[in-house]
Structure formats: C-alpha cells, structure tokens
UniProtKB/TrEMBL annotation:
Alphabetical list of InterPro entries matching this protein: 4NH2But_aminotransferase_bac (IPR004632), Aminotrans_3 (IPR005814), Aminotrans_3_PPA_site (IPR049704), Class-III_PLP-dep_AT (IPR050103), PyrdxlP-dep_Trfase (IPR015424), PyrdxlP-dep_Trfase_major (IPR015421), PyrdxlP-dep_Trfase_small (IPR015422)
Matching Pfam families: Aminotran_3 (PF00202)
Catalytic reaction(s) noted: 4-aminobutanoate + 2-oxoglutarate = succinate semialdehyde + L-glutamate; (S)-3-amino-2-methylpropanoate + 2-oxoglutarate = 2-methyl-3-oxopropanoate + L-glutamate
Metabolic or biological pathway: Amino-acid degradation; 4-aminobutanoate degradation
First-tier enzyme category under EC: transferase
Xref: CDD domains: OAT_like
Organism in which the protein naturally occurs: Streptomyces thermoviolaceus subsp. thermoviolaceus
UniProt family annotation: Belongs to the class-III pyridoxal-phosphate-dependent aminotransferase family.
Protein name, UniProt field: (S)-3-amino-2-methylpropionate transaminase
Length: 444
C-alpha cells in the first residue's frame, strides 16, 4: 500500500456521503451510549493524518485520545506486531507464558521513575490497570480507603466510575458505586480562589486536612492522582501540590499511585509527567500511548507492593496479549529512536506560542496550559468572572472538524479544547491545524 500522504485534503463535506451512509448503519446496529466525536469512517491513519472513506485527509490533533503518539501505523509497531501475529496470537500468560510480556515488564521497570526494584502486571485497558492498582494497594496495606481528586478521571468500570469525578456522561444513572472512595480538593491554578500563586500549598493543606479529619490517614490504602489531569481539563496541579501529597503518603504508609494513562510515554515531553517535580510514585498505571494503538495497560511499582497480591490474585484472559506486547516494544523502540520527548517539547513550543498569541486577540480564551503535546485552552464567557463557555467550545470544535481538523473537548464544565497530536506529526501540519483553530476563533 502506498504511504499515506501527509497533507490535509477535503474531497467532500465532513462527514461526506459515504461516512453518512455508514453512520446510518452504525446508528441502527451500535448502542448510542458509545458515541463518536466526529463520525467520519476511517480507512487509513498514520503520521499526523487520518484518511476517511470519502477520500478526506484530516489533520489529527487527537491521536485517538493520546494513544497513537508514535503514529497510527508506526513502522516498528507494524513490523513487530505482524511477526507476532504470524507466530501465535494467544496462549494466555497465566497458562503458558512468553517472552514479550517479560520484556515489556523489564522496559517498564527501566523507564518508570525511581531506581528501586520494580515489578509489573499487564492488563487490557486503563480502567483495568487502575482497578488492579487499588487491589494491590489494599492487599499491601490491609486498608480500604482510596483518595482521589476533584476533576479526576480514572475509567468507566464500576470501581473506576467511583474514582472518576464527573457525573455526565461517565456516571449518570449507573450507580450504585463502589464504597470507600473519598474525593479531595485539587490544586487547579486557574480557578483557585486566592490565585494561582497560593494554589499549590493551600490546596495541599486542604486535601491533607480532608484526608486526616474525614478518613484518617491510617485507614487510607492509596492516593491516586493524574500528574497532569486528562479528561478533567488538562489541569497541571500547581507546583508543590504533588510533592506535598507524595510526602504525606510516605509519612503515613499510604501507597501513592500516579495514573499516567494519558500523560505517560513521552506525551508531556518526559517519559512520565510525574518526573517534572521529581515525584517517584509507589505504583504507576499506564495504558493509552504504551503500545501504538493496541490494547495494553500496566501497573508497575515497588516490588514488595506488587508482590503483596497472592499468586493467582491478579490477571485476566487477555492481559498482556503477545501481539499487544510486541506492539509496545515497537512503540518504545520508536519513542527512543525518534526522541519523541524532544518532539513533544517542540510541539509545546509551537502550540503555546501560537495559542498565547491567540489569547491576546480573543477574549474568550481564559487559560492556555499543558505540557508537551498535551495542550489545552479553557474558554470562558468573560475573563473576569471566568464563567465556563461550553457553547463556544462545542462550536469551535465543530468548526475545526468541518475544516478537516480533529480536535477534542474535555473539562468538568465541557469548556476545554484539548490538543493531543501524534508526536510524529510534521511541523507543517501542526501549524496548519493551528491556522484552522485561529480562523475558527475569528469567525465565532
Ligand atoms: C483513559 C484513561 C483511563 C481509562 O483508560 P481506558 O483504557 O479507557 O479504560 C484512566 N485514567 C486516565 C488518566 C485516562 O486518561
């Protein structure tokens, strides 16, 4: 097959007639609970481009939600996964093991923060990894309570719905939720009442007070936090917040879990976002970017914590599937070879430069934030009141889609436009995407 041309091309309206036909079939056959941001049906994707059935080539600022950081058809991923497919598709690691699983565990031990002895268990999805981190932390500590934060997102299974903050669309009508989950305030700099400068220490004090008075530190198994929040609005907790929680966890025998499912694997310009403040988590959950698009997730952490669960207590039929493991080794090879951390930092430089300039021109841009290739703008009706502006956010996303740019929204108030380009995107496409965003603002 010929290489996918790395240019935007609009052959029809977006979505075009063939996509609309497929959408009609989809509506009849697929549950409406599973929705799509942009109903164009894909034929090929790679680099910074997604091609659809109508021959449109869209610029990808979504990476399938931070998954295809190495691209959607990266050479090393395709090569290694294809070879594995030909050899065997599955044996179940719990029945007869294979080397790929072990090699992924070794790679995770090498790449994750901290030089202590580490072990890993592999799963299929991010939610499954988070659930297992909770199982492991509870087995290790003999405690039950789990602390999570405002705006946090950890998945859609029953336990992870309980851990997730936002009701619509993730939790609404799906209760009752798992018990022993407690929510603490988050250091959200843009919306902290006394200002961004006070946010880190004040929020840490409030969170620690909440834990101490309402739960009791001695009852807490785990504190789980995203070092840069994803679905909740690409919020970077104010400096000092994560170190204070890390220290509190250590002082009270609480397992500190970094959920790096969205922020990990070069996305923020470091292998893991918690490195930014030198945080060494006890456990780290990974998924999304780990395997170039194949379903794989992991819990990695201190060997003595990981080994607290008894033999047979962890696992799953497909966890650490050999094809997904081969893909992960290909993705990691690509990240190292192309130095995708450096690429993510360059993407930040280009995007923040352009978006900050737009903020000067367009009053509704309240905040420009994020790290690496995990960048967002928060839209407000008025900069003084900071009232969220989900209407403009939806309208802008729609305008970008019509021009052939895939963008996603997020945030507790639905007022954040987020940008997650593949780290291998060409700089011309990156700038063209930003041109489309700027034109959309000018029109609104
Ligand atoms: C996406 C995500 C999850 C859930 O991962 P799934 O693979 O969708 O189950 C958990 N935590 C964070 C931070 C995520 O971004």
């Amino acid at each position: 097959m010929s290489a996918l041309e790395q240019t935007r091309h609009l052959a029809t309206a977006v979505p075009g007639p063939k996509s609309q036909e497929l959408q009609a079939r989809r509506s009849a056959a697929v549950a409406q609970g599973v929705s799509s941001t942009l109903p164009v049906f894909v034929t090929r994707a790679g680099g910074g481009i997604v091609e659809d059935v109508d021959g449109n080539r869209l610029i990808d600022f979504g990476s399938g939600i931070a998954v295809t950081s190495v691209g959607a058809s990266a050479e090393a991923v395709v090569r290694r996964a294809s070879a594995q497919l030909a050899d065997f598709t599955h044996t179940c690691f719990m029945v007869t093991p294979y080397e790929g699983y072990v090699a992924v565990a070794e790679a995770l031990a090498e790449l994750t923060p901290g030089d202590h002895a580490k072990k890993t268990a592999l799963f299929n999805s991010g939610a499954e990894a988070v659930e297992n981190a909770v199982k492991i932390a509870r087995a290790y500590t003999g405690r039950q309570a789990v602390v999570v934060f405002d705006h946090g997102y950890h998945g859609r299974t029953n336990l992870t719905m309980a851990l997730t903050a936002k009701n619509m669309p993730y939790k609404h009508s799906f209760g009752p939720f798992a018990p022993e989950v407690y929510r603490a305030p988050l250091a959200y700099p843009y919306r902290w009442p006394t200002g961004a400068d006070n946010c880190g220490p004040e929020a840490a004090e409030a969170a620690i007070d909440r834990i101490s008075t309402q739960i009791g530190a001695e009852n807490v198994a785990a504190i789980i936090i995203e070092p840069v929040l994803g679905e909740g609005g690409f919020i970077e907790p104010a400096k000092g917040f994560l170190p204070a929680l890390r220290e509190f966890a250590s002082a009270h025998g609480i397992v500190f879990v970094a959920d790096e499912i969205q922020s990990g694997f070069c996305r923020t310009g470091q292998w893991f976002a918690c490195e930014d403040e030198g945080i060494v988590p006890d456990l780290i959950t990974t998924a999304k970017g780990i395997a170039g698009g194949l379903p794989l997730a992991a819990v990695t952490g201190r060997a003595e914590i990981m080994d607290a669960a008894h033999p047979g207590g962890l696992g799953g039929t497909y966890g650490g599937n050999p094809v997904a493991c081969a893909a992960a080794l290909g993705a990691i090879e690509t990240m190292k070879e192309l130095d995708l951390n450096a690429r993510a930092k360059r993407i930040e430089e280009v995007m923040k430069g352009r978006l900050t300039a737009m903020q000067e021109k367009f009053d509704i841009i309240g905040d420009v934030r994020g790290r690496g290739a995990m960048i967002a703008i928060e839209l407000v009706t008025d900069r003084a009141t900071k009232e969220p502006n989900p209407k403009a956010t939806a309208a802008l996303a729609k305008a970008c889609h019509a021009e052939g740019l895939i963008v996603l929204t997020c945030g507790t108030y639905g007022n954040v436009l987020r940008f997650l380009p593949p780290l291998v995107i060409g700089e011309d496409l990156l700038n063209e995407g930003l041109d489309i965003i700027e034109e959309a603002f000018a029109r609104i």
